[in-house]
Amino acid sequence: MLRVAVPNKGALAGPASEMLTEAGYRQRHEQRDLTVLDPANDVEFFFLRPKDIPIYVGSGDVDLGISGRDLAQDSGAPVEERLALGFGGSTFRYAAPAGREWTVAELDGKRLATSYPRLVADDLARHGVSAEVIRLDGAVEISVQLGVADAIADVVGSGRTLRQHNLVAFGDAICESEAVLLHRKGSDDLAAKDQMTARLRGVVFAQQYMMLDYDCPKSILDDAMAITPGLESPTVAPLAEPTWAAVRAMVPRGEVNLIMDRLAALGAKAVLASDIRSCRL
Ligand SMILES: Nc1ncnc2c1ncn2[C@@H]1O[C@H](COP(=O)(O)OP(=O)(O)OP(=O)(O)O)[C@@H](O)[C@H]1O
Ligand SMILES: O=P(O)(O)OC[C@H]1O[C@H](OP(=O)(O)OP(=O)(O)O)[C@H](O)[C@@H]1O
Ligand SMILES: [Mg+2]
Asked: Which residues form the Histidine biosynthesis HisG C-terminal domain (predicted)?
């Protein structure tokens, strides 16, 4: 039976379970459940702290796990990314009191608070900077105003928490993170692991694309197909009206409205966009 670790709390827990449900796996109904058996797919899910998941995957006690790239790097565990999952996007940044420009070199000799001590220590070493790293479990942004640290390194999503605490990010991002599917470095390639990866890849891909259907006069078909080339090539079907054709193509979700505007301007009619739930390419 495949053993898979899923975040039980925090920013990744909800989207990870939703994605697994979309991929056809059974997920917990009760927030406090720590395991769920999915006999139909021969999988057992373990609901663990996102920070602990790379440790379990790296030790080989679970076959696959979902966690953040930043957490995987910080763990130092021997794990590899099988698939980027497209949610839980954040950057990991240095930040210090607003009101002036900061550089990473200025952290030398300073106190730096973080929940990700290994990620930070590695980055400071790369910069040749020697700072005192103070490990905190959370709410790191408050540490400067409370006097525990001079600067911080933490997860930045919208940037709202930094602004609220009068901090400003500086330096290059230490990590561009998102949720990832992890396996142990050098572990055997089981068919069951491949199957879960393929199913999740199908959902990730489906979330990034939409299906577009439209009718267009054959006189503009070449121009319309240039706007919607699809992945391989668009499907073109005849309509009862011989001078018209129906076209179907996948388009990137982020561009769908622009593409619909362009098709409408060209003379396409009945331009319909619909969600794709999953796919195998
Ligand atoms: N505001 C956010 N926006 C986007 N991703 C985030 C945000 N906060 C955390 N993450 C990501 O979620 C992952 C785990 O962080 P999270 O804060 O959910 O776990 P935790 O700190 O262990 O749990 P908790 O905060 O509940 O104690 C990390 O990969 C992080 O990059
Ligand atoms: O840039 P923002 O959108 O404001 O989000 C960033 C904040 O979100 C996370 O905190 P979380 O809620 O996980 O609390 P924690 O600090 O206790 O981990 C992270 O640690 C930052 O504090
Ligand atoms: Mg957190």
From this structure: 206-277
